[in-house]
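Consider the following assembly input.
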Amino acid sequence: MTVQLPKKTSDAKTQSYIDQGSSKESQSLETTAKEANSELRTKPSFNNSVLLNLIETRPTLLQVQEEIDRIRDWIADDYLVLGDLDLKLLAKLLKVPNLSLFSSFIALLEPMLENRHTSERAASIIIELLKDSRASARYAALEVISSQLGNIDIAGKLLEQAEEIMSNEEISYIVEYLQCLTSGMEST
Amino acid sequence: MTNFVRKVGSFAVWKESKAIKKVVSDDHANAYQNDLIKGQGLPSIWRADTEDDYEKISLGILLRAKRIDSIRLIVFSPACLQIENLELLHNPDLDFPLISVRDKHYELSTDQSIVIGKVAENVVSCLGSFKEFLKAKEDDPRNMKKLAEKHINDVDPQYQALARQWFCK
């Protein structure tokens, strides 16, 4: 038995709008909609995991870097770009034993620390990195903190924690950098 | 003293090799190569003749990106770049936001990985150094906010309003 679907009652209305379709208003609405749509398409998808989408495409390193630059800008503008899955994924990606990828992904932490949606989580990732067995990870964590000193309060608090966590640091260039950051010395 | 500089995101991986004056591993070498060639076209490099040049180049790079940030420069002594098959092409950047350093832009004429690898080796083996300007550290006389104020008169009119926002905040 076939069921007769009721005819759409809005057809007549639609028709009347179409009839008026050439008015200036509808033209400018259409243009605005087109622009908004194309702008939306250039933004990272806010509903999915942007990092998962990125790594699933098996990107080249250059593609990773370009995409991260793009994501960084959105985070810096305080958008909610990274969801729960992204934050978990990022913590994992920063453990990947490939220094080029590590250097690419760590670039997200600095704007994340300032972004109200991700600040707390970024801080906890940074604290983990300060305890990391890799010297480059510990140094990079200090760089993220240094970049936000004087800009947001949480950076000053993280620096205090870094001093505590790194009280037994043995690598001299890391100790020197920490000293530069805690004093007024020029950091080079 | 004249040096050449290039912006990198982080010194973390560079410092590891610098500490022992040689490239730690192939993975490190790859990371350096990526830092030295990242971007479109030939790798960009700037000539810094004075301390002010470092500051102006940094400020210009940030103004062009329209975002105040910390900036980290690899500093190459001229000897770092004296390598067979590597040429420095003078290519003035006529739209650069800081007017007085526009003429100090160069490009590395090679993208051969061996040559770029040699540059990285030279940097860590003692011919190179690092320079960092932090975004906003209050007790640092050379944070980017203060540098924007210091060099405001050298900023192209097109970027002046943005530069003022950075130090008037």
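Confidence is low (pLDDT under 50) at residues 1-21 of chain A. Ask yourself how this observation constrains the way the partners meet.
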